[in-house]
Amino acid sequence: MSAVTTPDPQGDIVSTPSTTHADPRSGLPDAPSGVMETVGLNVYYGGFHAVHDVDLAFGRNEITALIGPSGCGKSTVLRCLNRMNDLIPAARVEGSVNYHGIDIYGPKVDPIEVRRRIGMVFQKPNPFPKSIYDNIAYGPRVIGMQVDNMDDHVERCLRQAALWDEVKDKLKESGYSLSGGQQQRLCIARTIATAPDVILMDEPCSALDPIATSAIEDLMTDLREDYTIIIVTHNMQQAARVSDRTAFFTARPDETTGNRTGLLVEYDKTSQIFENPRDQRTEDYISGRFG
Amino acid sequence: MSTAAPPTDRTRPDQIDLTASSPRWGEKAIVGWLFLCAAFSVLVTVGIVFALVEPTLEFFSRVSLGEFFSFDEWAPTFQPPAFGVGRIVAGTLNVTFYALLIALPAGLGAAIYLSEYASPRAKRILKPVLEVLEGVPTVAYGFFALTFITPIIRELWPTFLPGALGDPPGIFSAASAGLVMGIMIIPTVASVSQDAMSAVPASLREAAYGIGSTRMQVATKVVVPAALSGIVASFILGISRAVGETMIVLIAAGATPNLTLLPNESVLTMTAFIAQASTGDIATGTITYYTVFAVGSLLFVSTLVLNMISIALVRRYREAYE
Ligand SMILES: Nc1ncnc2c1ncn2[C@@H]1O[C@H](COP(=O)(O)OP(=O)(O)OP(=O)(O)O)[C@@H](O)[C@H]1O
Ligand SMILES: [Mg+2]
Q1: Which of A229, B8, B175, B285 is the most exposed place for a label (fewest CB within 10 A)?
Q2: Is A198 strand, coil or helix?
């Protein structure tokens, strides 16, 4: 927990010009610019304490990777960031998750509005059983987004997701007619179709081959220009390749119950985490001695 | 690790035998039995068709097609008889229409509630109640219609809509039978639809919620289209039950072959006619006897066509998620 960086109190003033992204490691501000932050985040599933006291800040136009051994609560933390955990009846969240300074667990906050600004891409590609076109058009339609020309919008989203050339002649076919990697890019296109501010991705490449994975990694790097991206990954190289900052989680068994509660060990610039970790547990994990 | 030399020290039988060690008669017998079970229903259907065909042909050798498929008059037991089956088809359609008017929206609504909104606790209580309702004997519904619903309907008939629905109904009416039949069918529609909706993968719901859909949008735009084949199946099942339902109409709809789609009149349905004619003593070979078969054939064919239409519809519109 020692290396947790606190967000810049002025929040948004550290704006990173997009040119710095040519090399994400250089020109990265020391503290993230605080689009989102968790403060004392604790999550319980019924009586089970799944995540303990997580303080994290996510920077604008940055890619933040959440890594750590299986079961340490990465998905749980990620799902808290757009209130997807509301769908699990047993889940209970304590602490706060601030989005532009507003606690999304505050009393007057509508989770639907939250999810319209903070979109999510899931581990397993889950296109709707609708046409490719309707997969993209669905979001703008349900949120009542003003779109001048839906055809153009669909094309733009598919281009941004690097999928247009592969599907432009079969927009009326089912999303399920695509390969796994194409489906995942379709899901990403679907997520950006509603122009969210933040995109959460839970192991988006775990079901994909190396070529599709690299296509999606390139895509993430492109999307960073416009979005704030938070990604859970089991792939160390992927975290090292694409992310600007990395948060390492681990699970610690409770002395009395033996339940494994997840906690944040170290959060820093990705280069720092991978080249010069401060915590022994991080180093062990990164070097493959653990997890 | 591996040595270059082939593993010569391993014992290996000279002769490799890959034929089955036993003929597995037991398994073959079980498969045969399972096949017979599956074939049984097909055989019964074929049997029914055969039983219907001959007397039906006999009927049409005595009564012309034009006379049968007309709306003029229905009085097969009178002298002179009249066979305008349009009248009892209209009776069936009448009651079915009001039954479906109630059962389809209510059943689908209940299914959406159970699948998308109900807490696990509410589901634990409601689902078995629905299943119990499905098993209530129809004769009980018939009496419920006659003794409970009919008086209420007669009391509360909307006479403030003069001309629209006509006068309050008498003791027997399509309204009472249709209403109660609708109530009877709700659980069928709800339970089959809900099974189809609950089978829609959670990942699709998450995808929709993750974009910022409301619960209602998830239900109507994602879950219902994905479960469409099951929902249509539940509707067809509901329609088939309504068309084939006998006890309720026999008790509550009366037996007047009125040509009407208004709910306040007494009607005779195809099933009620068959039940009535068959419970009286009809001599084999009389025209009444053959009429029962002709009407039965018509019922059989209409449900068959209904099912075929539904299968075609489902193929055309469903959103397959596999
Ligand atoms: N819906 C749930 N109900 C109860 N417990 C859950 C639920 N989801 C997760 N958990 C528990 O919470 C803990 C953290 O799970 P989580 O899915 O967040 O881990 P993770 O770090 O994403 O793991 P992985 O890398 O395997 O995906 C685990 O012990 C898990 O068993
Ligand atoms: Mg996970």
Answers
A1: B8
A2: strand
3-state secondary structure (DSSP) of residue B241: helix
Identify whether the C-beta of residue A42 lies closer than 8 Å to the C-beta of residue A228: no
Contacts of B208 in chain A (CB under 8 A): 128, 138, 142
Q: What is the pTM of this model?
A: 0.82
**DSSP character string of A48-91:** EEEEEEEEEEE-TT-EEEEE-STTSSHHHHHHHTTTGGGGSTTE
Does any domain span residue B81?
yes
**B20 near A CB under 8 A:** no
Residue A225, amino acid: E
Mean pLDDT, rounded, for A38-43 = 94
Ion ligand 2: residue ranges with CB closer than 5 A: A 75
Count of positions (residues) in chain B = 322
pLDDT tens per residue across span A171-210? 999 999 999 889 999 999 999 999 999 999 999 988 778 8
Burial class (CB in 10 A: 0-12, 13-18, 19+), B33: exposed
Mutation for testing the A interface, residue in B200, B205, B211, B317 having most A CBs under 10 Å: B211
- CATH code where residue B244 lies: 1.10.3720.10
B286: left (phi over 0), alpha (psi -120 to 50) or beta: beta
Both B53 and B137 in a single domain? no
Alpha helices (runs of H) in chain A, residue ranges in sequence order? 74-80, 111-117, 132-142, 150-160, 164-167, 180-192, 210-223, 236-242, 270-275, 280-286
Output the pLDDT for position A206. 86
pLDDT for res A16: 41
What CA–CA distances, in Å, run from A212 to A64, A180, A217, B37? Answer: 21, 8, 9, 49
Task: List the structure tokens of B87.
Answer: 């009248």
Domain count, chain B: 2
Q: Which class is A2-286 in CATH?
A: alpha beta
Query: Looking at this predicted complex, what is its ipTM?
Result: 0.84
Contact call for A191 and B210, based on CB within 8 A: yes
